[in-house]
Amino acid sequence: MHRRKFLQGGIALGTMAASAPPLLGGPFTGKIPKSLKYSMIGERLPLADQFQLLKQSGFDGVEISLRDGLAVKDILAAIDATQIDVHGVIHGYDDDHSASIDLCQQVGGNSVLIIAREIAKLSYADNFARSLEIARKAIPHAEKHNVRLLVENVRASFLKTAEEMARFIDELESPVVGAYYDTGNTITWTKQSAQHWAHVLGHRIGKLDIKDRGHAVFGNPKLKSKTAVGTDGGEVHWQKVRQELATVNFSGWASAEVAGGDAQRIAGISHWMDQVLDL
């Protein structure tokens, strides 16, 4: 999309929004700001224009990683120009979290997504102990910069049940550590439902990753389970997930983690998040 076409489209969207009646929203309106992963933005535009696209599509923030290769000065300039927050950093598989924590602090974020990675040659007990040690080493640096370490439920982790992940977080005994709860990741490689993970993790949940593996548009139907039954055409039972989040009075960021694309696709993702989160 050319810059001029994008800006003209933004003016049109702004005019439509100004003339539309106010939306009342749902029970999580004002409690769950919307975000997505920076790598999902398919429009090749200057960073500030990409952030403006997010704002016009109804997003409040974005999550980045070191792999995105963004300069801190450019990020800060884009934040100032658009008021889009860079609320967190996605850490990779490196055992040293300090660079991601530093980046998060520099851009005004408040969390680093981390993974309790499984080493195939190690036993479960050794994997557990190893990951605890790695996280413990990162905690002082995270505390210093007022950044949380949020453990995500992912296939690459040895934590295959919600109970295991809750125990891992609790053993670290630090308010800095919590859960980055991914709704879609519960479907294809665990035998527990999305709502069960939400129930068990409960108050530990700091942020949400939003996806639905079985959804035809915002998922991957090829990975669809034969037994899971959800809502919205997918496998996550969003009503039950929302009920569990409401029980613990959840308030925090929700980031879409699905296939990205152009401005139309980004706007569609935003609308879909409004539906499944009842915003």
Automatic annotation (TrEMBL):
Key words, A-Z: Isomerase
Tell me which Pfam families the record gives: AP_endonuc_2 (PF01261)
Q: Which residues form the Xylose isomerase-like TIM barrel domain?
A: 51-261
- Give one GO molecular function term: isomerase activity
Give the source's domain of life in one word: Bacteria
Protein name from the UniProt record = Xylose isomerase-like TIM barrel
- Tell me what organism the protein belongs to: Rubripirellula lacrimiformis
Organism lineage string? Bacteria, Pseudomonadati, Planctomycetota, Planctomycetia, Pirellulales
